[in-house]
Amino acid sequence: MPRANPNLLVQSLRGASQVFFMENAATGLLFFVAMAYASSLTGNWATPIGGALGVLVATLTARLLDCDAPSVSSGLYGFNGILVGAALPTFIASSPQLWAAIVIGAAASTVVTAAFSATLTDKWGIPGSTGPFVLTGWLMVAAAYSFGRLQVTGDAPRLAADLVRGSAGIPGPADLVAIFFRNIAQVYLLGSAVSGAIILAGILIASVPAGIAAAAGSLVSLVVALAMGADPSAVSQGLYGFSPVLTAMAVGVIFLTPSPRVAVYAGLATVTTVFVQGALDALVAPAGIPSFTAPYVLTMYLFIAPKRLMAPHPHAPVADHMVGEGTPARPASPAR
Amino acid sequence: MPRANPNLLVQSLRGASQVFFMENAATGLLFFVAMAYASSLTGNWATPIGGALGVLVATLTARLLDCDAPSVSSGLYGFNGILVGAALPTFIASSPQLWAAIVIGAAASTVVTAAFSATLTDKWGIPGSTGPFVLTGWLMVAAAYSFGRLQVTGDAPRLAADLVRGSAGIPGPADLVAIFFRNIAQVYLLGSAVSGAIILAGILIASVPAGIAAAAGSLVSLVVALAMGADPSAVSQGLYGFSPVLTAMAVGVIFLTPSPRVAVYAGLATVTTVFVQGALDALVAPAGIPSFTAPYVLTMYLFIAPKRLMAPHPHAPVADHMVGEGTPARPASPAR
Amino acid sequence: MPRANPNLLVQSLRGASQVFFMENAATGLLFFVAMAYASSLTGNWATPIGGALGVLVATLTARLLDCDAPSVSSGLYGFNGILVGAALPTFIASSPQLWAAIVIGAAASTVVTAAFSATLTDKWGIPGSTGPFVLTGWLMVAAAYSFGRLQVTGDAPRLAADLVRGSAGIPGPADLVAIFFRNIAQVYLLGSAVSGAIILAGILIASVPAGIAAAAGSLVSLVVALAMGADPSAVSQGLYGFSPVLTAMAVGVIFLTPSPRVAVYAGLATVTTVFVQGALDALVAPAGIPSFTAPYVLTMYLFIAPKRLMAPHPHAPVADHMVGEGTPARPASPAR
Hints:
The structure is a homotrimer. The first copy, chain A, is mainly alpha-helical. Chain A contains 14 helices and no strands.
């Protein structure tokens, strides 16, 4: 683990790298290069500027709140903020109020990160990961529908039955390669295959196994999305791949110790994430909000939560109930 | 408790019986008979075949993941899988992708069951019950709206105000008897009163009190649904009764030790479940997904969670807050 | 703390006062005066009568369930019931079934309060506050869409894009003063500024700091709602202020020990609540249910959850996983 470093810039670059579970300022710098490259194509620089503002505000907020210093130094209080900052300009038109929303959202993301740490992580052993970004991002985008000074630019709310679906042919080889990289780029909400290649390079300089898992996740998601007949436009933009990429990395390499058994488990998790992506796209459609990385977050929580020798509650009385007699249940497992 | 049995078939039949909280292979066999009887009427055999596939895959997955052996043997890792397998063909048209979805959903239901066990059960003392089925089933059906190779066959998404409601007369005696049994059959997504009678017989051979609670739950739900003016078609199909049947069994007999006091408490829980059924039908309408057993699951979690001598947090400072002074709160109860 | 008092009337009046975190029967009496004043203007007395019925039923249910006696005596089992009783007639037309729904909802709110206490509070250190009211109220109003004998009178379900938004001028001084008080009155679902003034007086006789926090929350929410261009009609009715008022009190004075640092933290929480209000209004629109105090509840939970020296999970293996090797993660913080 790199040495704790009080420099806000280094902490923020590490925060950028933590989006892909790395703790490496050079990797974070490459991620900003990837964002800048995509902006140079579109002429819209709001994503890297919003991301930079978000990670700075989130990291500074963590310092002001006296959050655990090694965690702040590692960038663990910054990666949700960078995603809030990158995501809001993607879905809300520019205005002074947008930039105020980014500052408030990034500061709030630090509190949400601390809340997830104190509950989900500390009590249930589940990493919060980008859950705080998903929650904060959903609230800020949904709020824009209520606020005249925040204009939502993305998809309008609609019923799930109106979703586009596909069952057409398989894209050509060049398209497949581009999708492979866009699946990685879209974690940062970027539509550029080159940006995805830069990001993958950034991961590989920090961890080769993590890079391999990311690539495997991208491939698996592509096969499953095509086999199930997902919306070809969404598949082509990489929107069916970014959550599975994160799941493959998180379950296969980061939060479990790699082994053949873990690889199979991570494979099931990655395939499941593609279904959860399709599901959440439909479930959030009436609300008009993007699913963000929620498919990864939900799947990862479910696959990381199980503990060894765990037994479901038997269909027998629970202990110590307010109303019942409180006969103790049969012990959950012989080993406990 | 029956002796642990390594036979996959026996474990799977016990899994079928655990849908109604029993651990009895003969009961499970009767439940398959009930499914087969309903299929013989409609000519559609996807429900029993899907159920059989689901419970086998879920149980096998639990064995491969080295889940707690006595729990696997008791069928506690199979009952969510059988429901996933029975439910998906009810709401998604047959295709090779449907059967792939059943396999993936059933395997995932085992992971979700382990996740619920490690958190909700182990940390909060609440049985997971069919919660993993509800979550997995919702995700798989919602995903079908995004996938061209999975066609949803049931109700289309709509706004809550479009729900049908009734306030007409009371059904005749023969209809009431049929609804009484359909309320039980619909736990297995079956519309046949005879299937409901077979299932009730299966419960009674395993536990007379459980059978009485099921019957009482069916009766109470019928009275409340008619009194509130629920959609007569839904009431007639048994759709207002299957969750209250499970609540009456779970709260009245299974998870609390039966007593007059517990019976009153279970009565309130059963009545509440009818309201929650109406509520969830409206809340999931925009997403176009069925409510499954969610009304039972939510109500049961809320009624089983309370512990003896529990006190709400007083309106006084919380302990050890990141920002506050951390003055300890008044002890929650004198007895702790 | 006032002495435990077995009198149901005093317990119920304290329950009324606990809606604003007070434990003072005189304050509770003033709150009923505020409700009665608003009813004298509209001629509709369902709110105070429903509130009285709700708090009596909820408190009696807690006594019958042998809930923690000091908590019952303090009114902590009554304040969710009074809100259920006051809210249901606001959104559902009068009928015998409405009054049955209030009795069932108020009784259920006591069970939900005990469930939140046993989980959220006891395990995660988060006060349940009005979360049980929000959950119970949502379920009862949503159920009305399914029940012919319960007619929803408020807004119909719609998609988020149809929400009214404003960016017009700033209201005049007299309007601003009226909104300032309505922001407080709407916690009790009252639209009268005079009722808000009576409620503020009731808070001040119990706690001057709490009254100051309520006033500050009202002011901050008004500035933010106008700056973001929220629906002018909703702002004028006080609908953008009542949750921030509760957040300012809860985070600034009640659950954290007041200090300049806590005041800044409560300020961020209050601003965040205005965004969450806009967000939840949009998110619940398709379901046709009101957001109730959910914006306060969600924000307060997130801002009260963080504990001192808490660290997010590092991006390293979790301990003791069912499938992984279970290498222990780096300790979450040096101090633990």
